[in-house]
Amino acid sequence: MIERTLCIIKPDAVAKNVSGNILAMIQNAGFKVLGMKMIRLTPAQAGAFYEVHKERPFYQDLINYMISGPIIPVALEKDNAVEDYRKLIGATNPQNADAGTVRKLYGESIEKNAVHGSDSGENGIIEIAFFFPKAELSANE
Ligand code: IDP
Ligand code: MG
Question: Which amino acids bring their CB within 6 angstroms of ligand 1?
């Protein structure tokens, strides 16, 4: 089934200048890029994006990290996108991620783990809409 998922290249990966390498991995894996931009989140935006984690002890740290520098949200589409993208990026904690995954290659810690990925097709749609008005997405979608 064709699905959409949201990638975010997080501040640590943007700062390390590996955004292009990560995008190449994503595109070589067959994902179509529907939209992409480099932006800086406000604290309120970061808090809203990660609202689902607001009761977790790492919530405030996560917000501080996500506003620490520019990020690159990328709207992706592919058959089986959610599962295939999560396989490509690897486990949340880079130490537990499989060899050759984005987080193993570029993540620094369980927090500074280089990229975001949606956890379901439903959330993929919602998260893409958080960053991209429909008019900004690829016209040949
Ligand atoms: P995911 O990004 O693999 O879906 P989630 O559990 O949804 O992982 O957590 C969202 C983000 O919060 C992670 O990508 C990571 O940046 C951060 N995070 C998750 N667990 C921890 C933790 O135990 N300590 C610090 N940060 C964490
Ligand atoms: Mg998650």
Answer: 53, 58, 62, 92, 110-111, 113, 116, 119
